[in-house]
User: Fold these one by one.
Assistant:
Number 1:
Amino acid sequence: MADPASSRAQPSGATGVLVLADGTVIWGRGFGATGSAVGEVCFNTAMTGYQEVMTDPSYAAQIVTFTFPHIGNVGANAEDVESKVEGAVGCIVREDVTEPSNFRSIEKFGEWLARNGKIGLSGIDTRALTRRIRMSGAPNAVIAHAPDGKFDIDALLKRAREWPGLEGMDLAIRVTREGGEQWGGGAWTLGKGYGRAAFDAKPHVVAIDYGAKDNIFRNLVTAGARVTVVPAKTSFDEIMALKPDGVFLSNGPGDPAATGEYAVPVIRALLDADVPLFGICLGHQLLALAAGAKTIKMHQGHRGANHPVQRVGEGWGETSGLVEITSMNHGFAVDAATLPENVEQTHVSLFDGTNCGIAIKGKNAFAVQYHPEASPGPQDSFYLFEKFVGGLG
Amino acid sequence: MPKRTDISSILVIGAGPIIIGQACEFDYSGTQAIKALKEEGYRVILVNSNPATIMTDPEFADATYIEPITPEIVAKIIAKERPDALLPTMGGQTALNCALKLDEMGVLAEYGVEMIGAKADAIDKAENRQRFRDAMDKIGLESARSGVANTVDQAFAVLERTGLPSIIRPSFTLGGTGGGIAYNKAEFERIVREGLDASPTTEVLIEESLLGWKEFEMEVVRDRKDNAIIICSIENVDPMGVHTGDSITVAPALTLTDKEYQIMRSASIAVLREIGVETGGSNVQFAVNPKDGRLIVIEMNPRVSRSSALASKATGFPIARVAAKLAVGYTLDELTNEITGATPASFEPTIDYVVTKIPRFAFEKFKGAANDLSTAMKSVGEVMAIGRNFQESVQKALRGLETGLDGFNRVPELEGAGKDVITAALSRRTPDRLLKVGQAFREGLSMEEIAAVTFYDPWFLRQIEEIIAAEREVQKNGLPIDAPGLRRLKAMGFSDRRLATLAVRSVGVAGGLGETQAKRSGLLHDALVAMAGATSEDEVRALRHRLGVLPVFKRIDSCAAEFEAITPYMYSTYEAPSFGEAECEANPSDRKKIVILGGGPNRIGQGIEFDYCCVHACFALGEEWHGPAFETIMVNCNPETVSTDYDTSDRLYFEPLTAEDVLEILRVEQQSGELVGVIVQFGGQTPLKLAQALEDAGIPILGTSPDAIDLAEDRERFAKLVSKLKLQQPENGIARSRDEAAAVAARIGYPVLLRPSYVLGGRAMEIVDSEAQLDDYIATAVNVSGDSPVLIDQYLRDAIECDVDAVCDGNEVRIAGVMQHIEEAGVHSGDSACTLPPYSLGPDIIAEMERQAEALAFALGVKGLMNVQFAVKDGVVYLIEVNPRASRTVPFVAKATGQPVAKIAARVMAGEPLSSFEPFKRDMPYMSVKEAVFPFARFPGADPVLSPEMKSTGEVMGIDRSFEAAFLKSQMGAGMNLPRTGTLFVSVKDTDKAAIVPAIRRLIEHGFAVIATGGTQTYLAEQGLAVERVNKVAEGQPHIVDRIIDGEIALIFNTTEGWQSLMDSKSIRQAALAGKVPYYTTAAASLAAAAAIAAVGPEQLEVRSLQDYYGI
C-alpha cells in the first residue's frame, strides 16, 4: 500500500519535512528552529553526545540523522557545546524529543535547537534513511520546519537540487574564527565543570582553526600546552611571529581539497621550517595534501563513537597493533594509495581499511583522521595530545 | 597475536544445575565457548552435572563429564584427562569457585594446568571485597563507605561508619544469597548472621546504603594486548536496592550525557585492567547519584554473566564466543564480527532500538515467603523485548512475560485507593511495582509523587505516564479509525489484546466514556464490558490489517545499519512509512521452512529442558540428516537461552510468544518460500497455548495435532480413551458438594487424593485418609461448589511412579527410556529423583508400561514425542497421565541413553519414518540418576518440603556403574553432601516405619548414631535398634530443632502425612535448610541415601566421560 508520507501528499499533522534532491519527500514532525536549511544528509551512530555533535563545526552544511531513536533525553546544557559557530544545520530523529531527565540539563533539547537556529525533524524511520545512505550515498537535501504545516515543496526541492554539495566546497572559511584568541579553558570534570588554562604554560601551540571543536584545545591544555588559536587563513609569517613550539591543524567541515588551496601552502612552509605539526580530521587531510597525497570523498562517511582504529607501521613498539575505539566524523578521507614515500601510515580503520593516521618521516609531524578529543566518544586516544605536546621543545 | 599452540587441551567447567542466579545463560555461554574452542582445533573437556544443557551433548566437547562440580571430582577429571588449561569463566560462580579451590588445593600446579581467561589472583581480587575496594581506591574510583566483617561484633563496628540503612553482602555467594538491606539494628544483626553463614569464607561486606541511586552496568571485553571494548551499557529502571537480576533493565543507558557515559566507560576499562582480567568478558556495576552524578563502583564479575548473555542478545555481539577465542590468545582485531561478516570484533556495538528486560518470579510457589525484592536475587527467569522506542520495548516485554499481562494491566487492589495506600504500595520493592506505577498514574498521582517513593528516573516515569494517557484516550474515544492513529498506538507497543480490552465494543469507534468516567474507569469499564461485550482481539487485528497497520521487521546488526548484516536476527516494530511502505528487512527466503516456537521466560516447571528440545529441533531440521535440510526459524524471547543464539537457527525472531506477534512473523515468512509447518510441541506450555490460534489462522502444525494434545489434557475425553483401550487409571471422580465428595471417596476407597479442579500444577492437593479428614479439607482448604468442583483420585500409597518417553511416527512406536522415580507417587514428577534404567522394576512391568505407551501413542495419533506417567502398585500398572509433546525428561533420557531423542522426534514430525533411524539402544551397562534442585534457601519463611506442586528450578544427573554411586553423585551434584558418619535424626509417618528399618540398620552398622521422636523411636527400638529419643518441637525444649541448630545432626529422614504433621515438622526442615543438613522427606529417598552412604564413599567415586559410557 502506498503511504502518503512518501508522496507529495502531506499527511495531517506533518510540521516538518525532508526533501531530498532526488525528489523524495519525507514527512515528519518539526521541532527546534523553524524555516528551512540545506545540506548533505549524513548519519551518526553514537548513542550519546547529540549536543556535542550538533555543535561540531565539522558538521557545517550537514543534516545529521541520529541512528539511536531516543535523542534529547538528557536535555541540553551550557557545557556540552563544542563551538559557538555553525555546526550541523539540522537533525533527523526517530522519536519525538521527550522532557529531559538529567541533573546537568538546563533546557529542553528542542528549545536549545531553536535558540541555536537548528531544525529538528522527528517521526522518521531513521534506520531506513541510514540504510538508504549506506546503499546510495549521502544525499543533498533541505530540512524544513513550519508549525502551521505549510511548505512549498517545489521551492524546497529546487533549493536541494541547486545546492552544489560538499565536494569542492570550502566551508572552513565559514566557520573559522575572525581573529586570534588566547585559549583559556581546561578539561571538564564531574562536579567542577571546565578548568582554566595556565597562560604561562610551555610549550606554546598555535592552533589553526578550520572549524575546531573546543575540546581539542582543552585537551592540548590538559597535556600541558599554552594554546593560541588563529583563523584558517593565517599566513605562515603571522604564525611564526607567534613563536610557536608547535602548530596544530584542526578539524573542520567541507572538502579538504578546497580548503587546501590556501591551507596547504602554509602547512608546506611549516613543514619546510621543521615546525612540529599535529592534525586532526580536516587537519589530517590537509597535512596529507601538503605532503603530496590526495583526498577522496567517501561513499557514506564515518560518523559515530565506536570506530576501531589500529596502530600500524613502525614506531609503536609494544603497542603496535593496538586498537583504539574512536570518535569519528568525516566524509572525506586520505587516499592511502597516494601517500608519498616520506609519509608513513600510522593508523587504519578496521571497518574499511581507510587511512586514519599519518606521520611525516624524519619530522615531528603527524595527524589522525579521527577525534582523539572525544566529546562525544571514547577517550582512548588522549595519548596523542601528550605525544604532541610532550615532543615540543 | 594468533592462537596459542603451547596448549592443546582445555577443561571447561559448566555451571551445574539451574538455580536462581545461575540459569541457562551459562549453557549459552558454555556452548558458545566449546564451539569456539573446537573450531580452533583444541581438545575440549567439559564437566557439568546438568544433563539438560546443550553443551553436554556428546558431539560438542571431546570428553563430556556429567559429574558433580566439586573440586574433588574435578580434580579426578584433571588427573585423568591431563588438560593443559582450565577455562573457568564460562560457568558462573560455580565454575569460578571450583577453579579457585582447585588452585588452592594445588591440583592445578600438580598437573601443570594453566588457568586461562582469568587468573586465580584476578578472580580473588574481584571477589574479595576488601581487595576490590583497595584496587578501586588505587585507580581513583569511589566505592561506597563500607567495611568487612567476619563476626557480628566486627559488623557492628563497621555499622558505626556506614550508618543505617545498610547493605550487607556475603562474600563469594552467587546472586547475593544471604544478603539484604537492614533498616534497624535487629534486622542488621539477623542479616549479618545469615550472610556470615552463607559465605563460604564467613565474611560479609557492610556498605552505606545507596538506596535510590541509579544503577548501571557495563559489559566489557578485553584481550591480552589490552584492547578493551564496551559491548553494551545497561541501565536499571529499578534503582539501587534491588538485585540487578531482579531489576527491570534497559539497554542502552538512556539517562546519561556523553560526559557521564565516558566517565563510566573509562572507569570500566580501568577496573578490568586493575583487577587483571587479561582476556574475556566482565561486567562492572555502578551506582550514580541522580542529583550530582557522583559515581560509585559497586562490583565487577570477572567472567561472563547473566548480564553478558543479555548484552549479547541485545547487541548481537557473541561475548562468550569471543571471550573463549581471546582466552586462547587471539586479539579482538583478529576476530570477525559474525553479524556483519565484514568487520572485526574490535569495535563497540551500537544499537538503534531499545531493549527491555523484565524478570519473572515464582513467589506463588513458596507460600510464606514475602515477595519483597532486595539484594538477594529471587527471580527464576526473564524476558527480553526489543522495540524502536522504550514504550514499545517495555510493553512487548510485559506481554512476553506470560504472566497474563497484555501490557500495563490494571492493578485492581489499587483501584480507587487513596494516595497514602498507593504511595505505600509503590514504596515496596515488589515484582509488580512497574504495573503499580501505571496504576498510580491512572489514580491521578503525579510523576513527581511517584518518583519520590520509587526513585525511578523521571524519564521512565513520563514514558509510562504517556502510555496510561494513551490508554485513557482509547477508553474515552474508542479505537482510532485511521491508520496514523492506530499506528501511533501500535508504535507505543500496545498489543491488540490490550487495545481490545480498552475499547468497549459499544463505543468502539465513536463516542465513549466521558472524561470523568475514563479517569475512574476500572470498575465502570468492567460494567460496560458486561453490558456491551468487549471488543475482541480478532476485531482489533482485523481493523489493523484493514488499515494496513502492520509491523515490520528490523535487523539486530550490532552497527545501527552502518554495515550490511548477514545474520537474520530480527525484531518487530511499527515503523513510520518514510519511504513508500514502512521498510521491512525480513526478506523471507524462498526455501522450505519450519518455524520452531520457543518456551519464553524460564519459570519453575518450564525451563532449560524445553529450550534444549527446541535447539535440537533446529539442529535436526537445519541440515540434511535423514531427510532434506529445511530453513529453521526460531521465535523466542528468553535472552538466557541457546535457542536465541544467532547461529542456532537459520533465522531468529526475538519476539514475545503471543498469538499476535507469532502470526505477524508467519505472515511475513509466508510471503516467500513454503512454510512446511510450525513446531509447537517442543517449547512447553507456551507454544501449545498458541496452537489453536495458529490452526484458526490456517497455519500448518507439524507433528501431533493440537486436538490430540487437548484430548490428553481433557479429563473426560481422556477417560473415554483410557476405557476404550482397557487401560487402568486410578479410580477417580468429580464432586460438586461435600456429600458428593464423601460418596465418591467412599466408592473409590480411602486414602484419596483431593484437589480443586481449577488450579494447575498441583496446588492445594491433599491426601486424605478418612471422611473426617475429608470434611476438614473441604472446610479449610478448598471451596467446593458447582463452579469449582473438587477432583478425587484413588491414592496409590507407596506406589512407584514411572515416566516413559517415546517417539511415534504413526506406524511405529519406539520407547526412548523408562524412568523409575525414587520418591513415591504424590511428589511432582519434576521434583522427584529418578533412575534410568529402573532400579527395582521387573521386566514384565516395564514391558507392560511399554505396551500401554505404544497403545496410547497410536490411539492419540502421536507424531513426535510422547511422555507417559505410570504408577505401579502391587504389580498393577496404573496410567496417571499422557503428554503427547516434549517433556521435561527428554534431555535426561537423551543423556542417559546416548540417543538424540529430540532430534529424531523433530525429523519424524517433519515426515521422516522412524525406520530410517537406528533403533534406540535399551540396555545400558550403567545407571543414571536425575535429581531435582530447589531454591528453598532463597525463600525464607516457605516450607522446604516436596509436594504435588513443583518447586525445583533445575536438575543434575549422576551417572555410574552402580545405582548407589550414581545416586551419590546426583546428591553431590545437587549440593547435598551426604555425611560419612554422625547423628541421623529420624521421624517418619506410621506407614513408613516398617520400610525405613533396613535403612536405619544399615546406617547404624555404618557407625551412625540415631535419634528419633517418640513414635518412631519406640518403633525402631522394638525392632532392636539403638535409637535415642528426642523431643518434638511441640514437646518443649530441648527439642530436635535445637539439636539441628547446634550442629549436632548430620542427616535427617523426616516423612509426614496430613497438614498437622506437616506444620509440626516445618521448623525441622527450615533448620535443616539453614544448617545445610541433608534431609529427605520421603521414605524411598531416605532408603536410597542410606544405601549410597553405606555402599560408597565420595573418594571412591570414579569419573567417566559420556563418550566413554556410550562407547564412541
Number 2:
Amino acid sequence: MARTDPHDPPAAPSGRRALIVFSWLWVGVPLAYGVYELARKATQLFTG
Amino acid sequence: MSAPVAPPGWSRWLVPPAALSVHLSIGQAYAWSVFKPPLESALGLSGTQSALPFQLGIVMLGLSAAFGGTLVERHGPRWAMTVALVCFSSGFLLSALGAATSQYWLIVFGYGVVGGIGLGIGYISPVSTLIKWFPDRPGLATGIAIMGFGGGALIASPWSARMLDSFGQDHTGIALAFLVHGLTYAVFMSLGVLLIRVPRPRPAPAGAPDPAAPGSGDGIRVSARSAVRTPQFWCLWVVLCMNVTAGIGILEKAAPMITDFFATSSAPVTASAAAGFVALLSAANMAGRLGWSATSDLIGRKNVYRLYLGAGALMYLLIALFGGASKPVFVICTLVILSFYGGGFATIPAYLKDLFGTYQVGAIHGRLLTAWSTAGVLGPLIVNWLADREAAAGKEGPDLYALSLGIMIGLLVVGFLANELVRPVHPRHHLPAPAAPPSPKEATHGTD
C-alpha cells in the first residue's frame, strides 16, 4: 500500500532553513500589519 | 505543467507559506467595499452598481471552484496557483483600464469575472496538497491557509484605503490603485507558485498504522464524481450551509445590529464603537479558522462540528434571551459564533479528507463550496428582510431581530442533525488502490 510521507530527512539544510524563514516573513509581515490595523480599530469598541 | 514533486529534504513547512501567499491575496475580495465610495463618486454609480464586481466575483468563486476542481486535481497545485495569479492580477489590470477610460463594464468584467475565476481556483489550489503534506494534522494545515483568506481583507482594507488617499479618489487615482494592486499581488502570489511542491509517494513503512482505518481517510479513494452521489456529501453540504448562514447573518449586519440592540439602553453604542465591534468579529472569524480547525485534529471532525452547531445555537439563544440586557453577553456570544463560522470553513476540507480520502479532495471541496454561495444569499436575506419587516411593524431594539435569531437557531439545529447523520462512506464508492508507486528516485526524476 502506498502512502505519502511528509517527513523527509529531519534536519533541513541551512539553505532550506533560510528559505523557510524568508517565506514565513514574506507572508507574516503583511499579515502582522493587517492584524495591527485590526487591533487599532477594535479598541474603538471600548473607547468609542 | 506537471505537479512539482518535492526533492529529498524539502520541508513541509514551506507549503503553508506557499498557500498563504495565495489566500492572503485573494482574501482582498472582502475589502472591495473600500473602492465603492470612490467609484460611486468618480463614475456616478449607485451603491447597487458599485457592489456588482464583488458580487459577481463571489458567484464566479463558487462556480470556478465547483467546476474547476477536477482540473486542479488533474494539473496540480502549481498550475492552479498560476491560473489564480494570472486571473486575479489580470482582473485588477483590466479594472485599471476600465477606471482609466471610465468604462465601468470593464471593471465588472475584469474584477468580477476574470478575477472571480482567480478567487475560486486560488481558494481550492493548496487544499489537497496541504492535506497530503500534513496527514497527521490536516485541520491545522488547511486552517492556516483558510485563515489567510480572512487575513487578506485585514491587509487590503487599510492598504487600499491609504493608496486611494495618496493617488486621489478620481478615476485616474482609482486606476492607479488597481494597477498597483494587480502588480503587487502578482509578485506576492508568485512565491506560492515557486514554492509549492507535492510530497513524494513512497511505500508505507513496516508497522505503520492501517491506512484503511475508519476516520483517517488514508487509503480511501473516492472520486469527486462519486462523492456528490453519496449522502455524506450532501449532509456536509447542509452542515456547511447552515453554519455559514448563521455566521454571515451576524457578520453582514453587525454594526446596525449592535447599535439597534442597545439603542434604548442607558449607554447606546456609537458609530465608532460599532466599527470596533465589526473589527473584533473579523478577528474572531480569523482566529476560529486556525484555532478550531487545529482543535479538530485532536477531538475529531464530527465532534468539532457538534460544537460549532450545538454551542452556536446556544449562543444565539443567549443573545435572544439576555443579549439586549447585557453588552458583554452580546459581544462574547457573537464573537464565539463568528469563531465557529470561521472554524466551519477551515475544518471542512479535513472532514472531506476523512470521508473521501485525499484522492480528489480539492475537487470535492470545490463542489461543496456551492453551500457557501447559497448561504451568502440566505443569511443576509433572512436577517435584512426580517429586520425591515419588524421595523415596518413598529418594533425596535432587540425585538427587530428576535425572529431572525429564532430562525438561526432552527437552521443550526438542522445542521447539527445533518452532522449526526454523517457515517463512513460505503466501500462501493471507493476506487481500487493504485498500483505501487515508483521509488522516490524515479518519482522525482524529470517532474520538476
